[in-house]
Amino acid sequence: MRSCPKCRTELPDEARFCFQCGAPQPEIADPEDDTKIDWSEDAGPQIGSLFLGALRQRVQTVYQMERYPDFSERLYESGFRDVVDRRSKLVGEKLNDQLNLGAISARKANRLVEQLLQELLDFFIIRHCGDLVELRLPEQVLKYQQLSWGEFDLFQMVLDYLDFAHEDEIVYTDFLIMPVDKLRNAGKSFLFPEKQEKILLICDQSILGSCKEGFALTEKAIYWKAHLQKARQVAYAQISRIAREKDWLNINSYFFNINPTLNFKMLHLLKKIALLQHL
After folding, report:
1. In whole angstroms, how large is the CA radius of gyration of the chain?
2. pLDDT tens per residue, range 46-70
3. SS3 per-residue string spanning the chain
C-alpha cells in the first residue's frame, strides 16, 4: 500500500490517481535488488547461500576484503551460521506456502528475503563482530527487525539509527526553539516540503552556522544541500540506488556527505526505509 501525497488516502501500489482527491500519483521506483530465488526449488539453502554472498559484499564495500576470513570464522565460532540456516528454512517454507496460495507475488517474496538477509547481517555484525569493525550500527536499531511499514514510529527510528548523541553535528528536532533565521534559511536553500508534510529533523552543516547547507528528513523524503552543490531531494519511495562511494554516499546518482560515521548510518537508514516501502 501507498498513501496519496496530497490527502494521505491509502492506495494500492499500482494506483495512478487518488480515488479520493484525484491527484496523480508518482511512480514508485524499484530499488536495485539482486535477490532472486528459484521458488520451484527448496528456498532454504538458497537463502543461506545468499546470506554468505551478502556478508562478503558488505565486508568488501564497508570494511576491508582481507578481513573477510575473520568474519567468516566468527560466523561459525558464534553459532550464528546455524541461526541463519534455521531462519532461512523457516522463512523459505513460509514464503513458499504463501506463493502456492497466491497470497504474495514472487517479487514480494524476493523482497522479503532481502529484508531477512539485511536483518540477519545487521544482527550478526552488531552482536558478534563489534571487535572486528570500526563502523557499526547502534544496537537499538535491532528492535525494528521483522516489522512492516506503519508498525513503528518513523521519527524514533530515524533518531535510533542516526544516534546523534555520539555525533558532533548540529541537529534540530524541536523547531520552536530552532533560531528563526536558520529555519528560514533552510526553507530558502534546500528544504521544500509539501504542505502538511511533517519535518522530522534538520541538520545544519554550514560553515558559519547559517543552515544554508545541510540536510533534513521528513516523513516522506530526504532534502539536502552540500557545499557548492545544488539542492537535492529524494522521496523515500523513489530511492532506486543508495551506495557508498569512497567517503560519501550516492543517492539516486546525487552526491551526499556528512561524515564517515553518519554516512554509514544514513546509508543503512535509507536502505531500511526504501526496502520497507517497497514490500
Report:
1. 20
2. 999 999 999 999 998 888 889 999 9
3. CEECCCCCCEECCCCCECCCCCCECCCCCCCCCCCCCCCCCCHHHHHHHHHHHHHHHHHHHHCCHHHHHHHHHHHHHCCHHHHHHHHHHHHHHHHHHHHHCCCCCHHHHHHHHHHHHHHHHHHHHHHHCCCCCCCCCCHHHHHHCCCCCCCCCHHHHHHHHHCHHHCCCEEECCCCCCCHHHHHHHHHHCCCCCCCCCEEEEEECCCCCCCCCEEEEECCEEEEECCCCCCEEEEHHHCCCEEEECCEEEECCEEECCCHHHHHHHHHHHHHHHHHHCC
pTM for this predicted structure: 0.85
Q: How far apart are CA 47 and CA 36, in angstroms?
A: 9
Q: Which of 278, 242, 266, 233 is nearest to 158 (CA)?
A: 266
Contact indicator for 39, 96 with CB cutoff of 8 Å:
yes
Report the chain's terminal Cα–Cα distance, integer Å. Answer: 9
CA–CA separation, 168 and 171 (whole Å): 9
What pLDDT, on the 0 to 100 scale, is given for residue 12? 64
* Cα–Cα distance, 80 to 21 (Å, whole number): 50
Closest alpha carbon to 267 in 112, 135, 97, 149: 135
Tally of residues, the chain: 279
Whether the Cβ atoms of residue 221 and residue 233 lie closer than 8 Å to each other: yes
**Which residues neighbour 190 within 8 Å (Cβ) at sequence distance 6 or greater?**
213, 214, 215, 216, 223, 224, 225, 231, 232, 233
**Cell output for 185:** 534559511
pLDDT digits (tens, 9 = 90+) for 186-212: 999 999 999 999 999 999 999 999 999
Rounded distance, CA 279 to CA 69, Å?
33
Residue 87 sits at φ, ψ, to 5 deg, of -65, -40
